[in-house]
Amino acid sequence: MTSRQLKTTPVALVSLSVMLFLAGCGGGTGAKPTYEGWKGSIQNHVDTRGDGDINTLRSSDSRSGHIAFNVIGSEQPDHSTDVNSLLLGRRSILDQDWYVFVVGMVKAGNVQDIRVAAARNGNPALVWKFGLEEPASTSAYRTAKLRARLRGDSALIGFPLEEDQFSIETAGSLVTVIDLQSGARWTLGLN
């Protein structure tokens, strides 16, 4: 089993975000970002910046090396549905290099769902695996963040947060992402 800890930083999240504003989403109307749309934005990034090579995702001008990929539904956060993610790292699993992400669905500034996603080079498109909804883990994440910020149950908790620290563990074909503050765990099988 391997493990690695990552800490997000506001500078990295802002300066390295790849954002896509969906057409027709002014004021919260129009199409809403989806996990499929988020995957499409990553594919577009790989195609346009790396001629289809996923290794372009490792390109970073940041000293921290953390890269955020976000699909923003509206310029008005109170009316927006967004899919926000962090690229946590690359792992060799079952003799293939997989890029591991933690991905969150955020509605009106409040995280609704967090999942693990992984991608590898394919021909002609990336090959994706996407984790299932794990409500107990997302709830544990939210609860820990609310307690840490000394806020009541009604406060908004976005994703990702400045203080987030994640580790990746791998065992065979199983990838587990752990939020170190809450202990919340999200898993993904790559077989």
Task: Describe the model.
The structure is a single chain. The strands form two sheets. Strands 2-3-4-5-6-7 form a six-stranded mixed beta sheet, sandwiched between helices. It has helices at residues 10-15, 35-50, 135-148; strands spanning 2-7, 18-21, 67-72, 81-93, 96-107, 110-120, 127-130, 165-171, 174-179, 185-189. The protein has one domain (2-189). With 191 residues, it is an alpha+beta fold. A hairpin with a 5-residue loop joins strand 9 and strand 10.
Strand order of the largest sheet: 2-3-4-5-6-7
Oligomeric state, counting identical vs distinct chains: single chain
Q: Into which percentage range does the β-strand content fall?
A: 35-45%
Mean pLDDT: 83
- The residue fraction in helices comes out at 10-25%
Low-confidence runs? 2-30
Structural class: alpha+beta
Number of domains: 1
Largest sheet: 6 strands, mixed
Distance between the termini: 16 Å
- The arrangement of helices and strands along the chain is EHEHEEEEEHEEE
The total of helices stands at: 3
Apparent shape: globular
Number of strands: 10
Radius of gyration equals 16 Å
Summarize it.
The protein is of the alpha+beta class and about 190 residues long. The chain is built from three helices and ten strands. It has a six-stranded mixed β-sheet, sandwiched between helices.
